[in-house]
Amino acid sequence: MLTIPNRPAYLLLLLVLLLPLTVQAKSKTDPWLTLAISGVDEALSRNISAHLGSLPESEAQRRAFLFSVQDNVTAALESMGYYHGEIEQHLERTDKGPWQLSINVTPGPAVRLLWVDIQVDGQLRNSPEFEKWIGGVKMLPGDILNQGVYEDVKSQLQALALSRGYFNARYVTSRITVNRDLNLATVTLHLNSGSRYRFGAIHFEGSDLRPALLEQLIPFQPHAPYSTQRVGNLNRELLDTGYFSNIKVLPQIEQAKNTQVPVSVQLTPKPANTIDLGVGVEIGNTSGNKPEPKASITWRTPQINSLGHSQETTIEWSRDSLAQDSYRFQSTYTIPLSHPLDDRLQIKLGLVKDRYGVVQVYDPEAREFDTTGQLESTKGFVEVLRQQKIANNWLLGYSVQGLQESYTQSGEHYDPRYVLFGAGIQKTVRGDNSLDPKSGHRSTYTLQYGDPNLGSAIRLTKLQASYLWVDTFFTKHRFVARLDLGINLVPDGDLALVPPSLRFFAGGDNSIRGYGYQELGPTIDTVTPEGTLREVIGGRYLAVGSLEYQYYLTPTWRVAAFIDAGNAFDKNEFKPVVAVGPGLHWISPVGPIKLDIGFGLNKTETLDRSWRIHLTMGTVL
Question: How far apart are the first and last CA of the chain?
């Protein structure tokens, strides 16, 4: 049987038992010592705090902390060039609560560098990399002696030697000499780099691609001088093929013989087949007021055989606010030729049902045009394209494409056929290899030509040029500029036979935001039995530009503000359309996801001032 004592005695006993626990818990949360440093600038104060270390958490630690204060502060001052510092300590002891330590420091005169002697013996001495490094060393005569800077310079030179393959590099002399009387110091760094190592045999493991194909990806000559940059280039070449999910390029330095470094390349192939699904929606008040859903599925086979063939097949579907469906089917088969990346043959075939512009019918009772749909076309095509990398990393492509496109315009049905010969050149420069590069630019120029004598309905020459520029200033301020130009050289009487896919339209998230995809351009009015028909039919010219400012709130979130302007147009009919708006971007692990809201500032012949929400994903370069 359990007996409970009388309540006052019971409570007194409980308090006695809990008292030690209460004192112990309090002692763990309250500091044992507080610290105040005065008399020095912020840099010296931080350095003194770093040398003193963490504040004590027990009585024993407090005694040890106080015992070493003088030595630690002196070491902190001398490491930054102050050898005549005066240190005053004042300690207030209390029976309860933390003790309070105040340190007042008078640094005294600084020791300055009289001269800096950095010498390299060996092959590294005459290399351009060493000349570039030595020109940027931030330790010069007249500077205040800073042992941290000295250690950084010493480590940088050693790292430079190792990165260039000088694995036997050793310091013959590395010292700082201080004259306290004159407050002067000298620095001596003498490095013997020794001989530079070279690449030995490169062994590929884990892939069933033909060895000759893999060897073509080695971006340097056999037995080339070793450098970590060349190792990185090999890794990047293998990654860019798209064949592998994991790549490890491992120099076997410990197995080097006669200054030859063997390299083990361990490869993990991607899955034989992958399927990517995508969904999206656009919302706005342009050609309609309902959301416009989108969906896509992409099937990839990154490696079909040991020759490195691959394929990619994409099906896309969308529905506009007027319940009109669009779809796109395209399959691309890629064959490496003389090089898996620099010389490839692609065979493409596809079937596309797309919509363009705006179609309206005049309502005499309301005395206005009502939107009834868009110009629709159905296109089938097959294309053979060869792409080659040429000098200065330009990518040259030339192709032949056969297409047939059906569409109805101004009440008449058209079904022209074309054989188009094309050529293009493109160059992309990225400041870094991330999914959201801080800087870079891309230039693209293309030409397509069709001739009745070569299987085309009419003679047509289509020229396009585009330029994209990205740069980041002061870490957080990023600018993106874009310019797209185009021209169709075609006789006036043959304009109707130019299919919509070869004309120019504006509008959409990669053109003028705030307007729907391809709904801007010149119009034509046609009188039909149903009434006056007004159609946006596209133009023979295109001029669209954009400027966007982005500010990073955090490394993964940024806000944006943009202005887009331009239009598609015909001769002497340029009517620019302007749109502005804000954006919110998330730099996700798979690439930037951007939410932009565009507001059109212009009223066109078929559209009032509009707004539109654009949700996109992907890098600009």
Answer: 81
Nearest to 533 by CA among 403, 411, 427: 411
For residues 599 and 579, is the Cβ–Cβ distance under 8 A? yes
Q: Residue 123, SS3?
A: helix
Angle at 610 between CA 357 and CA 499, to 5 degrees: 10
Chain-centre distance for alpha carbon 35: 44
Name the band, by pLDDT with cuts 50, 70 and 90, for residue 24: very low
What is the residue type of 403? L
Burial 474-496 (b: 16+ CB within 10 A, else e): eeeebebebebbbbbebeeeebe
Distance of alpha carbon 296 from alpha carbon 276, whole angstroms: 8
pLDDT computed for residue 530 by the predictor: 76
- Do 536 and 505 form a contact (C-beta atoms < 8 A)? yes
What is the reported pLDDT for 293? 86
Here the tokens at position 159 are 């790292």
Confidence category of residue 19, pLDDT binned at 50, 70, 90: very low
Residue 29 burial (CB < 10 Å; 0-12/13-18/19+)?
Answer: exposed
Burial class of residue 506 in the structure, from the number of CB atoms within 10 Å of its CB (0-12 exposed, 13-18 middle, 19+ buried): buried
Residue among 327, 499, 330, 505 nearest 405 (CA): 499
500 CB-side CA count, 13 A:
30
Mean pLDDT value across residues 180-196: 95
* Residue of 234, 206, 208 whose CA lies nearest to 303: 208
How large is the average pLDDT for residues 202-215? 94
C-alpha torsion angle, residues 82, 85, 88, 91 (rounded to 10): 30
Return d(Cα 594, Cα 560) in angstroms, integer. 9
In this structure, what token pair is assigned to residue 519? 């709904």
For residue 245, what are the CA distances in angstroms to 234, 248, 270, 304, 443? 15, 10, 5, 15, 30
What average pLDDT does range 252-273 have in this prediction? 94
Tell me the angle at which helices 228-240 and 147-163 cross, rounded to the nearest 10 degrees. 60
In order of 76, 147, 564, the CA distances from 139 in angstroms are: 19, 10, 48
Q: How far is CA 474 from CA 49, 556, 558, 559, in A?
A: 29, 16, 14, 16
Residue 334 CA to residue 312 CA, distance in Å, equals 9
Rounded Cα distance, 367 and 346, in Å: 52
402 has pLDDT over 70: yes
Q: What is the DSSP string of 375-391?
A: EEEEEEEEEEEEEEE-G
Angle at 572 between CA 569 and CA 577, to 5 degrees: 45
**Got the DSSP string for 396-426?**
EEEEEEEEEEEEEETTEEE--EEEEEEEEEE
Q: What angle do CA 447, 453, 458 make, to 5 degrees?
A: 60
Helix (H, G, I), strand (E, B) or coil at 218: coil
Burial of 41 (0-12, 13-18, 19+ CB in 10 A): exposed
What CA dihedral angle connects 334, 338, 339 and 342, to 10 degrees? -80
